[in-house]
């Protein structure tokens, strides 16, 4: 009996692949492609071909065509291969082959409102911390951000959800200080007075500015070191294994973040350095930025930035070891005046890192004719120490504008073939928590129905440092389709195309980076269920993770490039 499309749709991906295996046919592809392949095979079966060898040969030729097409073999090469394969017989599926020879399909491009996208961005930036400006995960600022995004989906007429996840998270307190003091006339403990105390009237103090001169690092512990404690700072150079970490026990370690040079390795990650601090019982660890954004933002200096660490790699996270990063000039001052001088250091880091906090994932949903999923995503949290206009309010604003456009398309063209989810993630900056927890919760549905996940993270191009955008993914066919859409984009938006270079890359799944929210869609599936993903990064983002990532540098026009290209790619999957 010839089965219909609806009957195939009721089967799971595993069952569909089993059916194809029984027919000795290719088993790769998403659910829709598997159903289409079975339909073609059933149609052949229904033609009552008497010669089984001929039937098998025809099936194999057909599968060869689609495999060659997927691998982007030139069309003339496919024709020659199929002609040889048929040994003079008539070509099967000539309509499909002629369509391929004729050239790529025409791709429709979606609209994109630049000013609306900027408005989404400004709204979220305005929700930042009143002093530090960021929307750190697990805070009221992040909760208000998630609520705002969900509200916007509702205003677009798109049904929405708001999911909550409890994850390990550090909590910032209210008191932070990094300062030095040069003792005055007291010179030692005389008459009960301590150097640098209030009684030391001629002392000289230097106060460093929080966020500008120093930034607390992710999952830092609590520290309260006073001038009277007279705690030494030990220079550990790049913090390698050959450094005398044990000499910094019960003291403060100073590590210089530098590039690899000669036979000297680059500075290790925050995670490895913090573990070494724990193993050697340091009181605090100061990282000096001598590598990133040097002279790009402030002439003659390197601005400190936020970095997190892999909290899950610790059996017990140190509770009372402070972890911060300072600017290059601040590090040099500490080296000159404290390590090699007579100044004393005072450091107060008011952070609790032993608990859990709630993070949020709002999603807008457009139901399609099938359960096959196209998911757009971007992280809505920022580092605590800046507005995060580029990282990643830009990506969240782009996702919202794409969602708004699909809400309008739904009204005009009706239900899409695929179901759309537009999600924004909390907890990205501290370890991809939001996307990881969401993928784990929806894993069965994703393994069954995910067509593609589309990630937008800092898809922004700086006004002055314009190196364009990079689009990359792990599926050759998707990258080929996106490349064709870019050709249409060049025709219709010539000025944008010429202004912002577009670099497109196919990357094998196992070689994809793990530094943004597409990673869980790759790595948290079962071994044979690796998801199709594409992502986009912008360029010229030296400000990211610093206090200088503000709306002053924001370029809303640049978001239209990835917004139109990725939105149009999804449109042509679901409507064309």
Structural class: alpha/beta
Strand line-up across the major sheet: 1-11-13-12-14-17-15-16
Largest sheet: 8 strands, mixed
CATH hierarchy, class of the largest domain? Alpha Beta
Please work out how many helical segments DSSP would assign.
Answer: 17
CATH topology of the largest domain: Aminopeptidase
Q: CATH superfamily of the largest domain, called what?
A: Zn peptidases
Estimated helix fraction: 25-40%
β-strand number: 17
Residue stretches low in confidence (pLDDT < 50, at least 5 long) are 47-59, 78-104
Number of domains: 2
Architecture (CATH level 2) name of the largest domain: 3-Layer(aba) Sandwich
What would you report as the Rg, rounded to the nearest angstrom?
A: 29 Å
Describe this structure in words.
The chain has 576 residues and is an alpha/beta fold. It has two domains: 114-167 and 357-574, Aminopeptidase, CATH 3.40.630.10; 171-352, Glucose Oxidase, domain 1 (3-Layer(bba) Sandwich), CATH 3.50.30. It has helices spanning 5-9, 13-22, 31-45, 52-70, 75-86, 94-102, 114-125, 140-155, 270-279, 328-339, 389-413, 433-441, 443-449, 476-492, 494-499, 519-523, 556-574, and strands at residues 160-168, 171-182, 204-207, 214-216, 223-225, 233-235, 252-257, 284-289, 322-326, 344-352, 356-366, 373-379, 419-425, 450-456, 469-473, 502-506, 533-537. The strands form three sheets. The protein has an eight-stranded mixed β-sheet with strand order 1-11-13-12-14-17-15-16, with helices on both faces. Helix 4 runs antiparallel to helix 5, helix 7 (114-125) packs across helix 17 (556-574) and helix 11 crosses helix 17. The longest helix is centred in the last third of the chain and has 25 residues, at 389-413. The protein starts with a helix and ends with a helix. Residues 47-59 and 78-104 have low confidence and may be disordered.
């Amino acid at each position: 009996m010839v089965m219909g499309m609806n009957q195939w749709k009721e089967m799971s991906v595993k069952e569909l692949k089993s059916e194809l295996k029984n027919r000795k046919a290719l088993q790769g592809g998403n659910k829709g492609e598997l159903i289409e392949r079975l339909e073609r095979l059933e149609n052949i079966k229904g033609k009552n071909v008497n010669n089984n060898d001929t039937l098998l040969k025809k099936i194999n030729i057909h599968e060869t065509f689609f495999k060659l097409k997927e691998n982007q073999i030139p069309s003339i090469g496919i024709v020659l291969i199929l002609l040889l394969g048929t040994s003079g017989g008539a070509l099967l599926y000539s309509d499909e082959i002629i369509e391929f020879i004729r050239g790529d399909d025409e791709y429709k491009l979606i609209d994109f409102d630049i000013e609306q996208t900027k408005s989404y961005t400004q709204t979220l930036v305005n929700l930042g911390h009143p002093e530090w400006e960021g929307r750190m995960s697990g805070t009221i600022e992040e909760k208000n951000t998630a609520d705002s995004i969900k509200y916007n989906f509702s205003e677009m007429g798109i049904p929405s959800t708001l999911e909550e996840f409890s994850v390990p998270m550090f909590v910032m307190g209210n008191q932070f200080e990094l300062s030095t003091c040069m003792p005055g006339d007291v010179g030692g403990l005389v008459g009960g007075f301590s150097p640098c105390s209030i009684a030391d009237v001629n002392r000289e103090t230097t106060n460093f500015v929080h966020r500008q001169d120093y930034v607390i690092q992710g999952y830092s512990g609590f520290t309260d070191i006073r001038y009277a404690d007279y705690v030494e700072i030990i220079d550990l150079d790049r913090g390698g294994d050959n450094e005398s970490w044990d000499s910094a026990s019960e003291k403060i370690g100073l590590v210089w973040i530098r590039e690899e040079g000669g036979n000297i390795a680059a500075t290790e990650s925050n995670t490895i350095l913090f573990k070494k601090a724990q193993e050697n019982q340091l009181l605090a660890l100061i990282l000096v930025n001598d590598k990133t954004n040097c002279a790009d933002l402030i002439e003659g200096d390197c601005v400190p930035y936020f970095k997190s660490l892999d909290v899950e790699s610790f059996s017990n996270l140190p509770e009372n070891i402070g972890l911060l990063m300072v600017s290059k000039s601040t590090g040099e001052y500490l080296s000159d005046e404290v390590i090699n001088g007579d100044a004393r250091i005072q450091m107060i880091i008011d952070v609790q890192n032993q608990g859990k906090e709630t993070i949020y994932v709002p999603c807008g949903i457009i139901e399609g004719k099938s359960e096959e999923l196209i998911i757009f995503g971007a992280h809505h949290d920022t580092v605590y120490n800046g507005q995060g206009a580029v990282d990643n309010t830009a990506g969240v604003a782009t996702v919202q504008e794409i969602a708004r456009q699909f809400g309008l398309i739904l009204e005009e063209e009706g239900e899409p073939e695929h179901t759309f989810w537009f999600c924004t993630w909390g907890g990205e900056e501290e370890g991809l928590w939001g996307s990881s927890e969401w993928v784990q919760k929806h894993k069965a549905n994703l393994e069954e129905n995910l067509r593609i996940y589309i990630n937008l993270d800092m898809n922004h191009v700086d006004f002055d440092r314009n190196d364009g955008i990079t689009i990359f993914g792990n599926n050759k066919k998707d990258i080929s389709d996106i490349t064709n859409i870019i050709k249409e984009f060049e025709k219709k938006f010539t000025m944008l195309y010429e202004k912002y270079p577009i670099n497109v890359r196919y990357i094998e799944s196992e070689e994809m980076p793990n530094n943004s929210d597409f990673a869980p869609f790759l790595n948290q599936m079962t071994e044979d269920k690796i998801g199709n993903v594409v992502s986009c990064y912008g360029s010229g983002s030296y400000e990211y993770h610093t206090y200088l990532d503000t709306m002053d540098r924001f370029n809303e026009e640049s978001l239209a490039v990835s917004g139109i290209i990725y939105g149009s790619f999804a449109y042509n999957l679901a409507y064309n």
